[in-house]
Amino acid sequence: MTDFTNDVSWAAHENKSARDSSTEYKVYFTLILLAALPICTLLWAYSLVRNVALPEQGPIRKAWSEAQSITPRIFWG
């Protein structure tokens, strides 16, 4: 007879692990976003003064983009 209880407990462990990983990813993303926001705001203001034109991306969009590119590198090498 086959014991399916191990498969069920493994599936529950995988779901919990994925949930924990997702929460951890969101925490790191938020921290990186908050760290990048002041820097991106200063760079945006410098570019605005130097070029006398609005940059292509605003400071929030640029910080979001930075967080999106840095966070996966932490988790997936």
Automatic annotation (TrEMBL):
InterPro entries to which the protein is assigned, alphabetical: PufQ_cyt-su (IPR008800)
An annotated GO BP: photosynthesis
Keywords carried by this UniProt record: Bacteriochlorophyll biosynthesis, Chlorophyll biosynthesis, Membrane, Photosynthesis, Transmembrane, Transmembrane helix
Keyword Transmembrane helix: yes
Membrane-spanning ranges: 27-49
Function: Required for bacteriochlorophyll biosynthesis. Directly involved in the assembly of both the B875 and B800-850 pigment-protein complexes.
Protein family per UniProt: Belongs to the PufQ family.
The protein's name in its UniProt record: PufQ cytochrome subunit
The organism of origin for this protein: Planktotalea frisia
